């Protein structure tokens, strides 16, 4: 009996040491990814049409005596764009990881569930037909408001159907795919009748761009990101348990239906706000969560911040690439994320297949 107690104590101590080592490794990975995101952020601030050294640009952050042109370029143009890349990347990744978690489907994301396509259609209604839920005096937010409203309507539609008897998580993803094709067809119909000027505006919007970033839009997206992330963090244990399966999560006291509802609606809110302000940006919400899972596993206490940092790093790196791929031009960031995201996601699929 004494020997058994000693063996249990040794096993318990070994388990604690193993968990401590695993937690340390995960924290180290968080620091590394955060460092990479900061490096990309600094590079994003340093690169642009106006040629200034990194030291000149960065010194303007704290030096009030810096040259006026540098201060204007930094505070009015580059800093809002660079910070928006971080916030939007983190938001799409958090929305993607929680949608994948509550639906139990690795293909779930704001893009594949039709939210981005719905937002694009909402924006096109304003740009082509002049339909807006806001008065003419709020012209700067008329298009984002349209995009947000239609995107949330699509999310509520998905949620409503998900409550019907016999609807599985696989059916929800298929429903989202159906919405993608539906809103894409509607968007193409509007583009067909659009005049040239409105057509070019719609095409540019659907490509995704950070050029419309402003301090007010950044503040709105940051507040939503912080609030939604905190709500998800409070449910970290329940979300982790859900990955063990619905039956086991229910046996542990998790209200799966309520948790799924909250995950879908909060993830949709987070993604819709970002897409409404910056346009359609694909693959970040799909790829970043998978990279985070490969690094830290399914524990939401680590998966949630790692996904956010991976998304921020990916979109910040894409912002840098958008300024450097074509000399003298800035590509829409949605094009860059798609070009990079497709081969990256293909690689992840092959790696998972061989595991």
Explained architecture:
This is ABC-type transporter, integral membrane subunit. It is found in: Cell membrane. Keywords: Cell membrane, Membrane, Transmembrane, Transmembrane helix, Transport. GO terms for molecular function: transmembrane transporter activity. Its main location: membrane. By secondary structure, this protein is mostly helical. The chain has one domain: ABC transporter involved in vitamin B12 uptake, BtuC (Orthogonal Bundle). Helix content is 79%, strand content 0%. The protein has 14 helices and no strands. It has helices spanning 2-46, 54-59, 68-103, 115-129, 139-162, 169-193, 196-207, 215-234, 236-242, 246-251, 256-278, 284-296, 300-324, 333-354. Helix 1 packs antiparallel against helix 3 (68-103), helix 3 packs across helix 12 (284-296) and helix 4 (115-129) packs antiparallel against helix 7. The radius of gyration is 22 Å and the shape is globular.
């Amino acid at each position: 009996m004494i020997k058994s107690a000693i063996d249990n104590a040794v096993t318990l101590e070994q388990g604690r040491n193993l968990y401590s080592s695993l937690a340390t490794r995960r924290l180290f990975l968080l620091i590394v990814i955060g460092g990479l995101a900061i490096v990309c952020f600094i590079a994003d601030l340093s690169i642009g049409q106006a040629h200034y050294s990194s030291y000149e640009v960065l010194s303007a952050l704290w030096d009030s005596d810096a040259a006026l042109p540098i201060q204007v370029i930094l505070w009015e143009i580059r800093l809002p764009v660079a910070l928006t890349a971080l916030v939007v990347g983190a938001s799409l990744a958090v929305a993607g990881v929680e949608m994948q978690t509550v639906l139990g489907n690795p293909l779930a994301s704001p893009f594949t569930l039709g939210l981005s396509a719905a937002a694009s259609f909402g924006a096109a209604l304003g740009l082509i037909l002049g339909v807006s839920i806001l008065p003419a005096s709020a012209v700067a937010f008329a298009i984002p408001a349209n995009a947000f409203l239609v995107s949330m309507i699509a999310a509520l539609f998905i949620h409503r159907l998900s409550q019907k008897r016999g609807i599985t998580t696989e059916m929800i993803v298929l429903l989202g795919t159906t919405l993608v094709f539906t809103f894409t067809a509607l968007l193409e119909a509007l583009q067909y009748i659009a005049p040239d000027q409105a057509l070019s505006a719609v095409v540019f919007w659907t490509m995704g761009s950070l050029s419309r970033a402003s301090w007010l839009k950044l503040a709105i997206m940051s507040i939503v990101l912080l609030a939604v992330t905190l709500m998800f963090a409070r449910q970290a244990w329940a979300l982790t348990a859900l990955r063990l399966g619905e039956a086991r999560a229910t046996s542990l006291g998790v209200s799966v239906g309520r948790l799924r509802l909250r995950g879908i609606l909060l993830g949709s809110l987070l993604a819709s706000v970002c897409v409404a302000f910056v346009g359609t940006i694909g693959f970040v919400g799909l790829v970043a969560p998978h990279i985070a899972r490969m690094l830290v596993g399914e524990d939401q206490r680590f998966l949630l911040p790692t996904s956010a940092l991976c998304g921020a790093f990916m979109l910040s790196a894409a912002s840098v690439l958008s300024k450097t791929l074509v000399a003298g031009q800035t590509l829409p960031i949605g094009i860059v994320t798609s070009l990079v995201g497709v081969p990256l996601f293909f690689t992840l699929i092959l790696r998972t297949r061989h595991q």
